[in-house]
Design a protein that fits this description.
242 residues; alpha/beta; Rossmann fold; seven-stranded parallel beta sheet; 7 helices; globular; 3-oxoacyl-[acyl-carrier-protein] reductase; NAD(P)-bd_dom_sf
């Protein structure tokens, strides 16, 4: 049975990834930190729709200690794929942004995903085929004012993925980044309708991406036939900021 863990499974993109992978025959760990009821309800819904597969909600705070991260990974059933769909931002100038928030963004978006990759490697390389996908951002390619630290973390994921892919290239583990542009998720709900309209006008395809626009590419990379693709950052931006 092919099994994946989706970190950030209750987010806008993570939820779409779970739905599409379940439809594609995957059993799933649905990770959350603070939205346990939502993860549990999602897992129950998918289990009813796909009774021959397993759907397990799991909780992990990305601010956990290294020992707690290891305990979490040690408790997992072996998986074929890991999708890091979690992430946070803080729309602020570097000069006024709180340093505690900087630490939080770097930890959740970059540091802990790298640590979890280290801990999960042994489980992944033992599989017939395995995949790691990080959700980056178009801002990892072109930094965004007011989101400088966020942009740095997403750029860091691309360079880490490129380097780490070369370390494990002799195994059946591939490592890639999917970098969305503007996506219609709760993370963007902070912006006014006017701002959203202005951004939409800048996107050649003329709309924000949906979660399904991103989850489609997750399915493509998780296909066993995609094994020649590794160390890449794929921009899913509707032609925006290229």
């Amino acid at each position: 049975m092919k099994r994946a863990i989706v970190f950030g499974a209750t987010g806008g993109i993570g939820s779409s990834i779970c739905e599409d992978l379940a439809k594609d025959g995957w059993s799933l760990y649905l990770h959350t930190n603070s939205k346990w009821n939502k993860a549990y309800e999602k897992a129950t819904k998918l289990a009813n729709e796909y009774p021959s597969q397993d759907f397990l909600p799991i909780k992990l705070d990305f601010n956990s200690s290294d020992a707690e991260l290891k305990k979490f990974v040690d408790g997992l059933i072996p998986v074929n794929a890991v999708i890091f769909a979690q992430g946070i931002t803080d729309y602020n100038f570097v000069g006024t942004q709180k340093m505690t928030m900087m630490d939080k963004i770097i930890n959740i978006n970059l540091t802990v995903p790298i640590k979890l990759t280290h801990l999960l490697e042994d489980k992944l390389v033992k599989q017939e085929f395995s995949r790691i996908i990080y959700l980056g951002s178009v801002y990892g390619g072109q930094g965004s004012a007011m989101e400088a630290v966020y942009s740095a973390t997403k750029a860091g994921l691309s360079r880490f993925s490129q380097a780490y892919a070369r370390e494990v290239v002799s195994t059946n583990l591939t490592v890639n980044v999917l970098a969305p542009g503007a996506v219609d998720t709760p993370m963007n709900a902070m912006f006014s309708e006017e701002t959203i309209a202005e951004v939409t006008d800048e996107i050649p395809i003329g709309r924000f991406a949906s979660g399904k626009d991103i989850s489609y590419w997750v399915k493509v990379i998780l296909n066993p036939q995609s094994g020649y693709l590794t160390g890449q950052t794929i921009y899913i931006s509707g032609g925006w900021l290229l």
